[in-house]
Amino acid sequence: MRHNKKGRKLGTDWSHTKAMKRSLVAALFLNDRIKTVEARAKEIRPDVDKVITWAKRGDLHSRRLAIAYLNDKELVREIFEKVSQGMFQDRPGGYTRIMKLGPRKGDNAPMVIMELVTEPCVPKAERQAAAAKKAAPKKAAPKKVTKKEEKAEEKSEELAENLGFEDDGKIEQIEAVDAAEKSEAVEEAREEAEKAEEKAAKEAETVDAEKIEEEKADVK
């Protein structure tokens, strides 16, 4: 019966397990990151939180408890100094992060990387507000009216006035204005076509005159 023996079975006796956990916690505070087996990382997580809680208190009794656990005065002094300077102050818990690496070659043990979470903690309400603000649809920008569109509107209004319509928006007015615009467009196209024909005829005449002059020069 395993009376008064809570925790995971790590394959060692009690004294070996205690020393191993202490050395892993000290290595984590010293390097900010360690690579170990998943079961050991989960087992030392409460001990890491306990040491950081002592450092947050910052009194003499908490410092003596941390020295008694880690058995390293310099490391305890460094931890307490970092916490007094503002590290972990805005974080109420969850001081460690575990990232899985997959099975280890040989015994297929699940390996992880365990590290200290040093990023500033953002409250949940602020995160939700930022996410809602980001997901909110943006207001459509007012459409810019170009000079060409303004001229077309003015032209249609003039046509409506010339045709004798006073109230805007009637179907008869819209149809009449469209017909007038189409007729004007047809007339403009005809005028452009006539101009193009005249220009082509003039160019042909100049070409013929040049050819005649060249032939005369050759005869001479």
TrEMBL record:
Presence of the UniProt keyword Ribonucleoprotein in the record: yes
Species, as recorded: Adlercreutzia wanghongyangiae
GO cellular component, one term: ribosome
Subunit structure comment from the entry: Part of the 50S ribosomal subunit. Contacts protein L32.
InterPro entries per the UniProt record, alphabetical: Ribosomal_bL17 (IPR000456), Ribosomal_bL17_sf (IPR036373)
Residue segments, region Disordered: 128-220
Start-end of Basic residues biased regions: 135-146
Keyword Repeat part of the UniProt annotation: no
Coiled coil residues, start to end: none
Assigned protein family: Belongs to the bacterial ribosomal protein bL17 family.
Keyword field: Ribonucleoprotein, Ribosomal protein
Start-end of Basic and acidic residues biased regions: 147-158, 167-220
Protein's UniProt name: Large ribosomal subunit protein bL17
